[in-house]
Amino acid sequence: MSDIVRIFDTTLRDGEQSPGATLDAGAKLEIAEQLARLGVDVIEAGFPAASPGDLESVSRIAAAVGTADGPTIAGLARAVEGDIDSCWAAVRHAAKPRIHTFLATSDVHLEHKLHMTQEQVMAAVANAVAYARTLCEDVEFSAEDASRTDPKFLTEVFSTAIEAGATTLNIPDTVGYSQPAEFAELVRYVIDNAEGIEDCCVSVHCHDDLGMAVANSMAGVQAGARQIECTINGIGERAGNASLEEIVMALHTREAFYGCQTNIQTTQLTRASHLVSARTGIIVPANKAIVGGNAFSHEAGIHQDGMIKHAETYEIMKPETVGLTQSRLVLGKHSGRHALRLHLTEMGFEHLDDEELGRIFARFKRLADKKKDVTEAELEALVSDVHYQPEDRFTLNGVHVSCGAPSIPTASVSMNLPGKEPQTRAATGTGPVDAIFTAINRLIPFEVTLLEYVVHAVSGGIDTLGEVTVRIRCGNGESERTFRGHGADTDILVASAKAYVAAINKQARFESGMSNKKSESLAGAKE
Question: CA–CA separation, 473 vs 484, rounded Å?
Answer without folding.
Answer: 9
